[in-house]
Amino acid sequence: MRYRGELRALPRRRTGGATEPDKYMLEHAEKRPRELGRTDIELRRAAAEEMAFEDGSFDTVVSCLVFCHVGDDAPKALGHIQRLLKPGGTFRFMEHVRNDESGFGRNFQDFVNPVWKRLLGAGCNCNRRTQQAIEDAGFGIDWVKRQKTFPPTSPVIYGVARTG
After folding, report:
1. Is 8 exposed, middle or buried (0-12, 13-18, 19+ CB in 10 A)?
2. Is domain 47-163 in CATH 3.40.50.1980, yes or no?
């Protein structure tokens, strides 16, 4: 729910589900479907690694700025995403990741991460290798793009993956 465009992009021909682990963010997130007149979207309080939907429930799963918070449970959360997807389903993601392309950027992220996640980022880790985690979970990447943003949460990747 952190990315305001994601609900607008969902087709209306199907129902959808969304999760948010934080109670206060969920209350905030519940306003958005109402603003868009989307009564077909069910919101639940759950972490990414604890999504309680039926196997094969979704054609598409969307993740926007989630895996910086998931941490060591990323393999479990990605396993749940695979379980939720129908055969041939897509996983669309937008996540900020570790800057392995720049020694300075990487070192800066590692230096500020302890303070960032506790004081500024609400538990967000600015140095996760999320694309690698997606690939390690058995997803095939259809395409991915990297975009520079502002430190320490640069770069951002966005793309589409499919179950293996």
Report:
1. exposed
2. no
